[in-house]
Amino acid sequence: MLNNFSLLGRGLGEYTTKQKYTLQATPHRVTTPRLKNPSLKRGVVVPVNARFIQGRSAHTLIVMSFFSFFFQYTVWNFIPKNLFEQFRRIANFYFLIIFLVQLMIDTPTSPVTSGLPLFFVITVTAIKQGYEDWLRHKADNEVNGAPVFVVRSGSLVQTRSRNIRVGDIVRVAKDETFPADLVLLSSDRADGTCHITTASLDGETNLKTHYSVAETAVCQSESQLEALQAVVECQQPEPDLYRFVGRLTVTQHGEEIVRPLGPENLLLRGARLKNTKEIFAVAVYTGMESKMALNYKCKSQKRSAVEKSMNTYLIIYLGILLFEAILSTILKYAWQFDDKWDEPFYNKKTEQERNSSQILEFISDFLAFMVLYNFIIPISLYVTVEMQKFLGSFFIGWDLDLYHEESDQKAQVNTSDLNEELGQVEYVFTDKTGTLTENEMHFRECSINGTKYREVNGKLVPEGMTDDSPDGSAPHLVTLTHIYSLTLLLTDTHAMFPPLQPQRIRFDFFILIMYKLLHVLEFDPNRRRMSVIVQTPSGKVAHRIFLKGLRTLVVACRHFSAAEYVEVDRRLNAARTALQQREEKLQEAFSYIERDLQLLGATGVEDKLQDKVQETIEALRLAGIKVWVLTGDKHETAVSVSLSCGHFHRTMNILELLQQRTDNDCAEQLRVLYRKNLSGEDHVIQHGLVVDGASLSLALRGHEKLFMEVCKSCSAVLCCRMAPLQKAKIVRLIKTSPEKPITLAVGDGANDVSMIQEAHVGIGIMGKEGRQAVRNSDYAIARFKFLAKLLLVHGHFYYVRIATLVQYFFYKNVCFITPQFLYQFFCLFSQQTLYDSVYLTLYNICFTSLPILVYSLFEQLVHPHVLQSKPALYRDISKNAVLSMRTFLYWTLLGFAHAFIFFFGSYILMGEDTTLMGNGQMFGNWTFGTLVFTVMVITVTLKLALETHFWTWISHFVTWGSIAFYFIFSLFYGGIIWPFLHTQDMYFVFVQLLSSGSAWFAIIIIVITCLFPDVVKKVFYRHLKPTNTQKSQDGCFSPCNYYISRDLTAFDLIRIYCRVVKLIFAQGPNIERFDLKWARFLEAKKQIRHYCALVCISIHK
């Protein structure tokens, strides 16, 4: 049977059926091309144990172990693979080319000036990515190294998960996780069943019953399992958790017995065994081909609006670089057209230079100018952005306002690449159950035989009665038979599992009646119902059913005669044992059984709203964010919840697109709704739209544009009866609309994963439906109410910080390179550099890097409390306002203006024949360049200080420390003769510069000239034309006003200062603001606010 098998390597992406043994990667399992069942063609054959394999095959078989991985690098491929990934980035590849050009041709600057910054950027990025991959290695090792027990040679042997082979019989105990996809063989129960929970896979927390076949259920010892001769034939591995087709062939006394296998026989890796002491099962899918691994999707690389703008601006700066290089090359040859400049008497050309190709010279000069001006492209921008995102993401997890004490869950960041995108959201798509609600069902009322009952003080009474009304006062008496039938049905269809340890239960005034459970027709979302067939003590067979309308339960029953039940039993058994089209045949059998039903009644349950949902939705609406609710609930329930949570207002005109059956009907209804919106009838200001899944499918089929126009004119949209893929389609529809708005999707269940992955930003709620939504999200929070602060505060902060970071990088690099370009007009375009090579190298790495990094981590344009209390401030930063083309041009022109002032201010100071030294000595070329560089470092650092609104001790330290470090380094660098340098051009240059009073005066004048217009602009706009943000900034320190009238002694101030300083050093740099974080960590919030306020007053005094 096994002679035609071929070996399959893991991770190949296809399955070979050749006679030749093919081994790639780690061999996995044996496959066969010849199966009688067409649905199992090219399927998998799994002999149950190794002894049986040797008995059935003449070949030596290699079977794959369990080992699975989700990491990206190994020790051996980290360096080449990481370098390849990094140099795929255009900026890194560009600087690599510049570095190679410097090595190949004679350029004005040393290759170190490009090589060292490139090495620094590549190294920092590699360390960050290596650390993240090490965490993935660590997580994989925990899974692959978990201890498991397998049956080997008739006894249990403990091994590691990575050593499990296909065909191994594995023992799993209660509350343990299944290490692979297993086919259940037996359990400690006589019937061979077990109960599992799949919450970690599909989010469903209810227990599920799985079955073994009768021939293997009796094998409950290691010796019996060792003697078992069986082969499992199953389909190729696929990611569908609910689909499995196979068969088990058991050989007993020389006879082969074939039994069908389905999803009820498969125990999925990642699921957990419950209410069962132990089970034995055979491994069929292991490693990366288990269903859990196949469902693992690397989240698509999402790019934020800031990153897209940054790449656009980099292209513009690349155009500026090319323009400057081409212009300089042309002007050089134009200048050298005169022989006296082309070949001066002190620099005669050689014969080889005279005969060289003019085209090659032109290209060489062009590349040399490219190298000279290449620093206009900020090489350290990418690494600084990555560090800011990585470090800044910790603040979300540290924010105690996002911590849920009841569940002990804090906010979680799964990706740090989208922090700034939280400040640009225009549409929020949210699930209802478990996201807006608690997902806790509480019984409220029911209807039995036409009479409505409701809960009053824990008692069930007819409508119109109180709990103490006499029994005879009911307006409508319901027969006891209906009440009994309904109660019995709810009891039968309720999933209850006996505990492992029998417990004594006392029944007072009750008679215990036994029913024989014959069949269970499990619930599925297509039928929306669950049925059971039971036999009464009298022998009568009853079919009981309830239809789940999600928040309502419709109860019905049907009685079978003995002959009818025989036919029902035959149909069910035939469908369940079918090897082909099993699912279709089961649906046919269910349809035959679930008909001619007698209605008994209905029940109603309430799903309570989460805390502060209404306030959160209102805050998002004030922030200019449109909220859409996408739910699978029915129309009435969804509208009721939307009204109660504030999504719909009572005064809002509700438009409906429901129960549309044809394209024409749907199109006509859309036109009617569109005309209503345009007409503004009844003077309605706001409209709300309700659409169901069926009508949505028709609307998206050929009327997308008209549907979008209707939706845009509505303040709120509710989509009910939505399938998971429809949720993703809605998000994609808005996401790809002409306006390209930023979308955010939030949900808590497995059915929300598709829309979470589709949206620009995905938020997972740590609810009660497992963790699949959390694992596939970009951010995870414990409650919906935390979404307000995540967007309005953290989103605002992150966007402003990183947008300013990008603008500032472009600005300071324009300031850096433009004087270099201007200098060429004064050196006959000879490619002479204005700055020393060490300054060129360290400008972006050391002298100006830390202040902007600290700014991008701690800056707060407005106090967090103000941002939460005034959601409208969110509108000021929407649509990428801080990084728009207008602000980009402002920062760029400001950089050019400051660069002109740096250069010509220093040039005017020196003039011609001007002596600035006490001994009459003139400044040289390197002193002039150092003067320009010194003014530039001070100006760009103080410019950032002017942009800073929130100062911490770290901000002061890096701002003034960077300037001090530059002076100390320059004194040290220019005060020593370095033997490894080819020239000593900078020796004593900086000391000479600082010894001149005129140079000091020039530095002060030039810095003031550059920054004074900025100060005037800020003062003018703040007082004459303030923005909403600037108005809010004025009131940020209002808590101090309460204490301004207090009479403070010097002793009081000293004591307060000491307490605050103690808090600073106790908490370190992890604190984002005084009044909240310190207080929360020390549980003295009010007291610390007093201290901070008093310190502010003392500073004013």
From TrEMBL:
<dbReference type="InterPro" id="IPR001757">
    <property type="entry name" value="P_typ_ATPase"/>
</dbReference>
<protein>
    <recommendedName>
        <fullName>Phospholipid-transporting ATPase</fullName>
        <ecNumber>7.6.2.1</ecNumber>
    </recommendedName>
</protein>
<dbReference type="InterPro" id="IPR044492">
    <property type="entry name" value="P_typ_ATPase_HD_dom"/>
</dbReference>
<feature type="active site" description="4-aspartylphosphate intermediate">
    <location>
        <position position="431"/>
    </location>
</feature>
<dbReference type="InterPro" id="IPR059000">
    <property type="entry name" value="ATPase_P-type_domA"/>
</dbReference>
<dbReference type="GO" id="GO:0140326">
    <property type="term" value="F:ATPase-coupled intramembrane lipid transporter activity"/>
</dbReference>
<keyword id="KW-0547">Nucleotide-binding</keyword>
<dbReference type="InterPro" id="IPR032630">
    <property type="entry name" value="P_typ_ATPase_c"/>
</dbReference>
<dbReference type="Pfam" id="PF16212">
    <property type="entry name" value="PhoLip_ATPase_C"/>
</dbReference>
<dbReference type="InterPro" id="IPR032631">
    <property type="entry name" value="P-type_ATPase_N"/>
</dbReference>
<feature type="binding site">
    <location>
        <position position="633"/>
    </location>
    <ligand>
        <name>ATP</name>
    </ligand>
</feature>
<feature type="transmembrane region" description="Helical">
    <location>
        <begin position="888"/>
        <end position="910"/>
    </location>
</feature>
<feature type="domain" description="P-type ATPase A">
    <location>
        <begin position="148"/>
        <end position="210"/>
    </location>
</feature>
<feature type="binding site">
    <location>
        <position position="432"/>
    </location>
    <ligand>
        <name>ATP</name>
    </ligand>
</feature>
<feature type="binding site">
    <location>
        <position position="632"/>
    </location>
    <ligand>
        <name>ATP</name>
    </ligand>
</feature>
<feature type="domain" description="P-type ATPase N-terminal">
    <location>
        <begin position="72"/>
        <end position="114"/>
    </location>
</feature>
<keyword id="KW-0472">Membrane</keyword>
<feature type="transmembrane region" description="Helical">
    <location>
        <begin position="838"/>
        <end position="858"/>
    </location>
</feature>
<feature type="binding site">
    <location>
        <position position="431"/>
    </location>
    <ligand>
        <name>Mg(2+)</name>
    </ligand>
</feature>
<feature type="binding site">
    <location>
        <position position="523"/>
    </location>
    <ligand>
        <name>ATP</name>
    </ligand>
</feature>
<feature type="binding site">
    <location>
        <position position="433"/>
    </location>
    <ligand>
        <name>ATP</name>
    </ligand>
</feature>
<dbReference type="GO" id="GO:0055037">
    <property type="term" value="C:recycling endosome"/>
</dbReference>
<dbReference type="GO" id="GO:0016887">
    <property type="term" value="F:ATP hydrolysis activity"/>
</dbReference>
<feature type="binding site">
    <location>
        <position position="751"/>
    </location>
    <ligand>
        <name>ATP</name>
    </ligand>
</feature>
<dbReference type="GO" id="GO:0005783">
    <property type="term" value="C:endoplasmic reticulum"/>
</dbReference>
<dbReference type="InterPro" id="IPR023214">
    <property type="entry name" value="HAD_sf"/>
</dbReference>
<feature type="transmembrane region" description="Helical">
    <location>
        <begin position="312"/>
        <end position="335"/>
    </location>
</feature>
<dbReference type="InterPro" id="IPR036412">
    <property type="entry name" value="HAD-like_sf"/>
</dbReference>
<feature type="transmembrane region" description="Helical">
    <location>
        <begin position="90"/>
        <end position="105"/>
    </location>
</feature>
<dbReference type="InterPro" id="IPR023299">
    <property type="entry name" value="ATPase_P-typ_cyto_dom_N"/>
</dbReference>
<feature type="transmembrane region" description="Helical">
    <location>
        <begin position="957"/>
        <end position="981"/>
    </location>
</feature>
<dbReference type="InterPro" id="IPR023298">
    <property type="entry name" value="ATPase_P-typ_TM_dom_sf"/>
</dbReference>
<feature type="binding site">
    <location>
        <position position="433"/>
    </location>
    <ligand>
        <name>Mg(2+)</name>
    </ligand>
</feature>
<feature type="binding site">
    <location>
        <position position="748"/>
    </location>
    <ligand>
        <name>Mg(2+)</name>
    </ligand>
</feature>
<dbReference type="InterPro" id="IPR006539">
    <property type="entry name" value="P-type_ATPase_IV"/>
</dbReference>
<comment type="similarity">
    <text>Belongs to the cation transport ATPase (P-type) (TC 3.A.3) family. Type IV subfamily.</text>
</comment>
<feature type="binding site">
    <location>
        <position position="721"/>
    </location>
    <ligand>
        <name>ATP</name>
    </ligand>
</feature>
<keyword id="KW-0460">Magnesium</keyword>
<feature type="transmembrane region" description="Helical">
    <location>
        <begin position="111"/>
        <end position="127"/>
    </location>
</feature>
<feature type="binding site">
    <location>
        <position position="631"/>
    </location>
    <ligand>
        <name>ATP</name>
    </ligand>
</feature>
<dbReference type="GO" id="GO:0000287">
    <property type="term" value="F:magnesium ion binding"/>
</dbReference>
<feature type="binding site">
    <location>
        <position position="727"/>
    </location>
    <ligand>
        <name>ATP</name>
    </ligand>
</feature>
